[in-house]
Amino acid sequence: MNWSEDTRLDADEDTGASATDERMPMTQASSAEPRGELFLGDTGTLPFDARRALCQLLAGPSIDAQRHGALWPALLRNEAAIRQVLCELFLELVLDREGGVAFTRQADTAELESPILLRSAPLTFIESVLLLFLRQQLAEADTRGERAVVDEAQLVEALSVYEKNVSTDRAGFARRVMTAIGKMRDNQLLSRLRGSEERYEVSPVLKLLFSAEDVQALVMAYRGLREGEVALD
């Protein structure tokens, strides 16, 4: 998944598909047919909305059906063609139709020395613990058939048990927690709810980033840290 600044192309837009779409059969096979030049010298074959979806995937961090109302159906209509373009760049499309999320990641090319296009940023201890907590909240909400919603006070309280593992004072720890929350917002893993400054919905993309096995392994590792006296960061 490409962790980057918020570069959403159509989040919160109410616009529908372009006029080109009205003439386009709703099949993936048709997406590779020429659509005519969109600009001088254009040799591309993807329709305009599919190119916008591809750009959002490359810019990152993801496409969300709720936040990207026009890009999501364009991605589904042109999935095969977009996958093909991404493969040319040694990238893989990860798509969850039921969850309504998609993102790109580096393809596993084994021993092939392929270029790395997606930026990656190391996580701090606090950011890692926050991600784990959000993934757990998402799993619990799924069992209830609900959206995962959290508030800042809940997040701060959940992370406070790790304060002794971070070599800083209480004020410094609070700043690190808020910085971690901000990073989750920037990467669209937390989306502020309308009408609220401190309540967020957890993105379902976390289900694709962390499997149940990954979560269990992290829980065991961080439980040992929480119960010990190891200082980090």
Automatic annotation (TrEMBL):
Database matches in InterPro entries: JetB (IPR025449)
Region of interest called Disordered, as start-end residue ranges on this chain: 1-36
Compositionally biased region (Basic and acidic residues): 1-10
Protein name stated in the entry: Uncharacterized protein
Organism from which the protein derives: Xanthomonas axonopodis pv. vasculorum
